[in-house]
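Feature request, filed as a ticket because there's no other form

It would be nice if the structure record came with a short human-readable summary line next to the tokens. Right now we just get the raw output. Example of a typical job, pasted below so the devs can see what we mean:
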Amino acid sequence: MRTTAVVVGLLFLTSTAAFAASAHVAGALLVAYTGLAVAGIGIALFPVLRPHGAGLATGYLVLRTAEGLTLLAAALYLATSGHPVTGYEPLVYAFSGAGGLVLSGLLLRSGLVPKWLAVLGVVGYAALLTGVVSELAGVSELDSGPGLAFYVPGGLFELVFPILLLAKGFTRTSGGVRR
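Raw output as currently delivered:
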């Protein structure tokens, strides 16, 4: 599972960086990479998560695949039309938030990461989903002003989680056994 931890850690970091930079650099390629990386995270984590909840692990895989396909569709549109897609981010964030809640719940249940990190994931993805609802209701915009606060806890999780995976891999905190 050490190899899986490293692959997932790298995919989390690079997909987040590619998505953040996609509006400014070679947009279509970066959005496409993000879509492939997001789906790859779901695929790589499936065998790790399945023993801790097969239905939830399948749900996580489906949500990350849907997120990846949404990003690939946006990249294809950008590449073929030359025009950026607008308004698709809330859908991507909804898939990401729902998938992140499933992942964090499974991490909390399994002990594969420290409890505080799994709880940070739950808080972070719940905040992201709250931000999506807030944006769709017209209360705030996720990408400006106070709406940016909805990203903070999830952003911390998506920074710390992959670094932990790269540095230490998965652990079983209950028994202290590294997997």
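Something like this underneath would help us a lot:
DSSP finds six helices and two strands in the chain.
The first helix runs from residue 2 to 21.
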